[in-house]
Amino acid sequence: MKIRHWLLIGLLCSANAWAGGLESLEAFVKTVKSGRAEFTQTVTAPPREGQPGRTKTSTGTFEFQRPGKFKFDYQKPFAQSIVADGKTLWLYDADLNQVTQRAQSQALGSTPAALIAAAPDLRALQADFTLEAAPERDGLQWVKATPKNKDGQLQNVQVGFQGDALAALEILDSFGQRSVLKFSKVEVNPALPASVFEFKAPAGADVIKQ
Q1: How far is CA 20 from CA 15, 77, 125, 205, in A?
Q2: What is the number of alpha carbons within 13 Å of residue 130 lying toward its C-beta?
Q3: Range with lowest mean pLDDT among 14-28, 76-90, 97-111, 150-164
Q4: Kind and range of the H or E element at 160?
Q5: Model's pTM, two decimal places?
């Protein structure tokens, strides 16, 4: 399978942490204009016919520059790249030597990428998502984002922060598939050359426009 695309005291004690997740998201969107990190992504398919869900893990690097530019470079087990250059969203599958091209304006509104890389401010996020604080767990503060557009393929996204630093994404799609991305070696506001977000289809690749 390829990867394509909480008793009174307890509530009182966790209230500040819940608010902290929203505060962390607001600070992140406002102050972090670019970033670079490594990631591990675990995708779990929903169980079928009494069988446990299948799990697949991949690793790679992630870079972004707000607003609207990012690159996911999957390295293992399959080489894939997802690049948004501000106008176009590109998906390159090295095994298939195939490129999928979409207009970025039509592809990013209610996606996890909009939460961490595309939106210029919190107000822009709130146009597409209902944002609510979630309980602290795993040492992180969480925000749950539910798309206002109910016709998409995304049920919700939870964004985990350690302080104001992005640490994790948990994505649940409309098919019951769960993707968990954990970020490490996070760099905040690095100077990223424009070439990072430039994409040119490899020679001989099939290019599919959607």
Answers
A1: 8, 36, 17, 46
A2: 8
A3: 14-28
A4: strand 154-162
A5: 0.82
Burial 134-170 (b: 16+ CB within 10 A, else e): bebeeebbbbbbbbeeeeeebbbbbbbbeebbbbbbb
Catalogue the E-assigned strands of 18-153: 34-44, 55-65, 69-76, 80-85, 88-93, 98-103, 129-137, 140-147
Own/partner long-range contacts of 145-151 (Cβ < 8 Å, ≥24 apart): 145/115, 147/110, 148/110, 149/109, 149/110
Give the model confidence (pLDDT) of 106-165 as tens digits: 776 557 777 788 777 888 888 888 999 999 999 999 999 998 887 777 899 999 999 878
β-strand pairing of 154-162 with 55-65: unpaired
Two structure tokens written together for 128: 């597409």
Query: Which two tokens mark 153?
Result: 């393929």
- Average pLDDT score over residue span 50-58: 84
pLDDT of the residue at 22: 86
Distance between CA atoms of 158 and 140, rounded to whole angstroms? 11
DSSP assignment letter at 77: S
**Residues 121, 152: Cα–Cα separation, whole Å:** 22
Cβ neighbors of 207 (< 8 A, separation 6 or more) are 98, 99, 101, 201
User: Quick one: pLDDT at residue 140?
Assistant: 94
Is the pLDDT at 201 greater than 80? The verdict is yes
Burial 27-51 (b: 16+ CB within 10 A, else e): ebbeebebbbbbbebebbbeeeeee
Neighbours of 9 (CB within 10 A): 7
